[in-house]
């Protein structure tokens, strides 16, 4: 029985190890609610590749993410939108706000949330005419990548990453932080639910083929192994 459980766990880990490198980003949040600094999404290790998916609306026109630094660091960022016809010309921006950054012109709604000592960097995309096309095989989704940047955060303190549209348009976007791939056991076991949520965000129905043919088989082996373990 113990061998069966071990076999099941090794199987699912083998499958996950094979497919996770194509996924690249650990999901931080999907369809979240982070429209202001008080509700900002906290990002832990900024070196780890992580992504937040958000739909900006008239009521909540911005996504706020928060980074707490004990030492200066470099923040790797990318911004994209799902491949959906109505988002073909959607060009949101990112702003990085915090101590030690230069003075910057920002919309009044964002400026009001800054302290007097904060500066910022605006990462605009309105001049991107041909975005990079990106197919994510793990979730079976497609995106347009509008930009990739590295921003130096010059001192310890709290920084915010804000996604917004300068013209006030609404739409869906995702913001990725970090480059190092790292996944926990809970990330692996949450894969089916995560994949469905990401596909729903991209407005793609069903499951990717690999999940139906391999993923659920591996999960079933884990369930059987755990049942045998508890029944011994």
Descriptive labels:
232 residues; alpha+beta; Jelly Rolls; 2 domains; six-stranded mixed beta sheet
Structure in words:
Helix 1 (2-23) packs antiparallel against helix 5. It is globular, with a radius of gyration of 20 Å. It is an alpha+beta fold. The termini are close together. The protein has a six-stranded mixed β-sheet, with helices on one face. It has a five-stranded mixed β-sheet with strand order 2-4-10-6-7, with no helix packed on it. The longest helix has 23 residues, at 209-231. The protein folds into two domains: 1-23 and 183-232; 25-180, Jelly Rolls (Sandwich), CATH 2.60.120.380. The mean pLDDT is 83. The protein has helices at 2-23, 108-111, 185-189, 191-201, 209-231; strands spanning 26-30, 41-43, 50-56, 62-69, 73-82, 93-99, 118-123, 132-136, 141-153, 157-164, 171-177.
C-alpha end-to-end distance? 7 Å
The CATH architecture category of the largest domain equals Sandwich
Q: In CATH terms, what is the fold-level topology of the largest domain?
A: Jelly Rolls
- The DSSP helix count reads 5
Low-confidence stretches: none
Radius of gyration: 20 Å
How is the topology of this model organized?
Blueprint (H helix, E strand, L loop, with lengths): L1 H22 L2 E5 L10 E3 L6 E7 L5 E8 L3 E10 L10 E7 L8 H4 L6 E6 L8 E5 L4 E13 L3 E8 L6 E7 L7 H5 L1 H11 L7 H23 L1
Parallel strand pairs: 1-3, 2-4
Antiparallel strand pairs: 3-11, 4-10, 5-9, 5-11, 6-7, 6-10, 8-9
